[in-house]
Amino acid sequence: MAHFPEAFERLTEQFAKLPGVGMKSAQRMAFYILNQTPEEAEAFARAILDAKRSVRRCAVCQNLTESEVCPLCSEGGGRDRSVICVVSEPRDVTALERSHEYNGLYHVLHGAISPLRRVGPDDIAIRELLARLNDGAVREVILATNPDTEGEATAMYISRLIKPLGLRVTRIAYGVPVGGSLEFADDATLLRALEGRREL
């Protein structure tokens, strides 16, 4: 087995800590960095440090931003302030924005309830969501957490907290994907597709 310098091994270990990155991929990344010029490597390191220093959570929706309030929440954003779409992660906001169909506000939980991973309701931004619902401006909360066990548990928990406030609580529909084939869909997906059907 090849022996690499300790600094290279430390770099590889850091890359391996990234989600979805195994040791072989981490090693490839480390080799890539070593093949860069010193200026390129410094720019890479500086970008990481700059992002860590300047990116924070929006004071309103908890999405990532470099200012106190993100552009989507700012008054000049022209968004429908009566609807809040609740998502698990900042990347979910990006996915929904790509559709160009949703014009309301967002709330990012930064996770989902998961007893197995010891993530409870107090570990994600549910408290901040409830605080936003007190001003009477919001009429509907769309729960757009992932359609997995953790996402469903989170949606149900939040729904039970919000329903007594008299707000409309909806869940995004999901089922057979566009371009998909019914014969390859599992039973749960087909059930959801039938439940979420709409009139044409």
What does this structure look like?
This protein has 200 residues and is of the alpha/beta class. Among the domains are: 1-39, Orthogonal Bundle (Helicase, Ruva Protein, domain 3); 79-173, Dna Topoisomerase Vi A Subunit, Chain: A, domain 2 (3-Layer(aba) Sandwich), CATH 3.40.1360.10. The chain is 40% helix and 12% strand. It is built from seven helices and six strands; from the N terminus they run αααβββαβαβαβα. The chain has helices at residues 6-16, 23-35, 38-54, 90-98, 126-132, 149-162, 187-195; strands at 56-57, 64-65, 80-87, 104-108, 140-143, 168-171. It has a four-stranded parallel beta sheet. Strands 1-2 form a two-stranded antiparallel sheet. It is globular.
Largest sheet, order of strands side by side? Answer: 4-3-5-6
What is the radius of gyration computed over CA atoms, rounded to a whole number of angstroms?
Answer: 21 Å
State the secondary-structure class.
alpha/beta
User: Whole-number average pLDDT?
Assistant: 89
Overall spatial form:
globular
- Please summarize the sheet with the most strands: 4 strands, parallel
**Number of E strands:** 6
In terms of per-residue confidence, which ranges show pLDDT below 50 for 5 or more consecutive residues? none
**Share of residues in helices:** 40-55%
CATH architecture designation of the domain at 79-173 = 3-Layer(aba) Sandwich
CATH topology of the domain at 79-173: Dna Topoisomerase Vi A Subunit, Chain: A, domain 2
Distance between the termini: 63 Å
Strand content: 5-15%
Q: How many helices does DSSP assign?
A: 7
Q: Which CATH top level class of the domain at 79-173 fits?
A: Alpha Beta
In N-to-C order, the SSE pattern is HHHEEEHEHEHEH
